[in-house]
Amino acid sequence: MIPAVLPVYNRAPMSFVSGEGSWLVEADGRRFLDLGGGIAVNVLGHAHPALTAALTAQAGALWHTSNLYHVPQQEALAEKLVEATFADTVFFANSGTETCELAVKMARKYWHEKGQPERHVILAFTGSFHGRSSAGIAAAGSEKMVGGFGPVLPGFRHLPFGDHDALSEAMKASDVAAVILEPVQGEGGIVPVPDQCLKGLRDLCDETGALMILDEVQCGVGRTGKLFAHEWAGIHPDIMMVAKGIGGGFPLGALLATEAAASGMKPGNHGSTYGGNPLGCAVGNAVMDIVATDDFLADVNRKAGLFRQGLEGLVAAHPDVFETVRGSGLMLGLKCKVPVADVVQAAYGQETCVVPAADNTARLLPALNITDEDIREALARLDRAAANLVPA
Length: 392
Fold this sequence. Notes:
Elements: E1 16-20, E2 23-26, E3 31-34, H1 37-40, H2 49-59, H3 72-84, E4 89-93, H4 96-113, E5 121-125, H5 134-140, H6 143-146, E6 156-159, H7 164-170, E7 176-181, E8 184-185, E9 191-192, H8 195-208, E10 211-215, E11 239-242, E12 253-257, H9 278-291, H10 294-317, E13 322-328, E14 331-336, H11 340-349, E15 352-353, E16 355-357, E17 361-364, H12 372-387
Parallel strand pairs: 3-15, 5-6, 5-7, 7-10, 10-11
Antiparallel strand pairs: 1-2, 2-3, 4-12, 8-9, 11-12, 13-14, 14-17, 16-17
């Protein structure tokens, strides 16, 4: 008999009932150190007092009115994002995959309004992940994502990740509207795009007119030590997908764009009943007030250095278990030699949560305000987990 909850997840046998900071409490009372952060969502940990206060205050005032009316909390958050980024305008959604749908629509509408509707193809890369909607799986293109869900949304052309010659050739095609990529592939195994490659892609977009769409759903909102990961390369996209961390645990997504890229979008072209609701935007404002500051981001970089140094030592101590550390900031991956599922289970045995990814990689996505003490505890627990995977 099918369960009441559609069985599309392989859930671990834990049920968490509360959390505080970087810790989760299981129904049986065990305390787990959370190095997954709800898959890069809980940027300020669990039950952060500023986020709790913002949500509670808004919940006592007004939950929902829809986008038929002005939403002050939404407008305030949009202003903060515009001030802090390349963007001129913001559309609010509830999730990252919704922002992918709009990014695709916006890019194609841009060229349609310019009188070139034949420019509708969006270039994407192997190993990518852009959500599980029709546009998201079409952009990823892998059999794992699209198998059984055909016919797949057309208009995407896939390139090998890291093949500069293939990209340069593909960008010359007269039907290319845009290119979409993650500055750090998350589901793909914590694989950063080198700064020089992002710069080169920006140059190609400028040369051809193709729009640059960056998916910073997982790597954005302070995760890499900059507010957004592309800032390390000194470039800016035309369109950017944001979610996960922006709500600090409350469902919230945002599509950021330049005025030019958004120029084709008119009233009625897109919408969302819940997108940008007062509750979500109240929390988003609180997140931005904390994360989008120089001092906070500097501390993320300091903690990232501490954590990465310890992980490098972990790899050296357990060469039969781990191969290397990769990533940026507090978006780190341990590429494993043993099956990553075994590493995840061994971590659970040490009451520690890590997240599996492709390329046999364990993702470490802790709260950005994780304490130094908790980092040291995390390293100790991962060390014990690794030791248990090697036969005596």
